Amino acid sequence: xxxxxxxxxxxxxxxxxxxxxxxxxxxxxxxxxxxxxxxxxxxxxxxxxxxxxxxxxxxxxxxxxxxxxxxxxxxxxxxxxxxxxxxxxxxxxxxxxxxxxxxxxxxxxxxxxxxxxxxxxxxxxxxxxxxxxxxxxxxxxxxxxxxxxxxxxxxxxxxxxxxxxxxxxxxx
Length: 172
Fold this sequence. Notes:
Elements: H1 9-34, H2 44-70, H3 74-103, H4 110-126, H5 138-145, H6 147-171
Helix pairs in contact: 1-2, 1-3, 3-4, 4-5, 4-6
């Protein structure tokens, strides 16, 4: 995998903004799934979902605006992304333990394991080191380290959705 071999000012900014959007979307989705804000009952959930959506969109606009119009700050950008990531990692870890205790199915524990993997991979990004032989650096290894959890996460989401659908069928 080759990353950032030729960045321009625009491509670098777009990369950072896309990464921020991805992290913030993960934070956006997490409480929606964990607290089932996607369900229509009770009616307060729809209000909470709208409020949460407005908050997340506002945070993203503020983040991009700060980096674009005020100051391009790598440290702030990293801190903002790590903070959003830590919150969702904590929520998914708690969810994972509770869901596994309830279902007693191995896949229910996967979010906690994926969180652990991501934390290990993220340490490469945070504990940066210079390129080895001018080619392999911490950032490229971070990207490589996110491939496995992405596939694993998708598999979890499919199993979680199947469990959810099966539960709905039993209620009908």
